[in-house]
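Notes to self, Small ribosomal subunit biogenesis GTPase RsgA:
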Amino acid sequence: MNAQDLRTLGWRPAFQRQLSPEEEQNLIPVRVAAHFGSQVLCLSYSGEFALPTALIQACGEVAVGDWLLLEPDSRRGVRRLERESLVARRAAGEKVQRQLIAANLDTLFIVTSCNHDFNLARLERYLALAAEAAVEPVVILTKSDLCDDPLPLRQQAMRLKSGLIVEAIDARDPTQVNSLADWCGVAKTVALVGSSGVGKSTLAMTLGVGPLATQEIREDDSRGRHTTTARHLHRLDAGGLLIDTPGMRELQLADCESGLAEVFDDVVAFADHCRFRNCTHDTEPGCAVQEAIECGELDKRRLTSFLKLQSEEARNSKSLHERRQDSRKQGQFYKSVMAAKRQRKSGED
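result:
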């Protein structure tokens, strides 16, 4: 195994340290480039190949960006290396389950456009995901050429989080897209997230990904249709790696409590001074949050957004926890049934 060759795929010392001498000698590390349900596409220092998911069952649930250890001859998965980061959400629809978006990222490019898609509350959701995963967020405002003045939108986005970097660009212009080069260098991994039609595929192609299908947006509401249909890891001209993701119409938060606290640190800071620890920041006396709003020190929209996301996160986290508990109990039940079967069989023998 050549660690220098693997570095072009995002390999770093933190992964190397997880290998035992035997694993380093006898197994090959590969990175998951795409997941198509029955197959996964893998990248290794020697090339790209597809594997049936049945061959990597021992690795557990995998996400695009994960590192797996395989047996060299059979290519059977042995285990998944511990992730440095994981971006996940509650899956869309009525099913109560977590959906893995991307693993082992350095940067999350949160893409929105300078039209109807621009929405501060939606940006706060993505920022909470990035904060929970300890991944650097960069907000990218596309279609700046179609906006009379993108500066007010950029300033609004910058106020969402201290130190947040916001770039306004025309995703078709290589010169403007070059402002993102620092996040796309050798061994660095970025992911694109955002709604359909905001220009993620166009941006990916300008960054150096091969040709991708793109579609026009609807003029009446600036909404697009899904172009990317599955998460996929691509190599970039600058030496980095980019994970393109399908557009997200619904972004439900779960297991994201600390991420919310980081994004809404202004609300949390005022809440620490409320008279009552269980203050709901509504009509209670001595509510420091409401006092800050009245004095103009805190935007009321921020409190409304925080309370909504906090309630959603708590509800979804509870549902996921209950589902995990049910799955654990079901697994224990199956094990007890199989154990009883084996015991009966040994008694008959």
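- The first helix runs from residue 3 to 7.
- The two ends are 49 Å apart (CA to CA).
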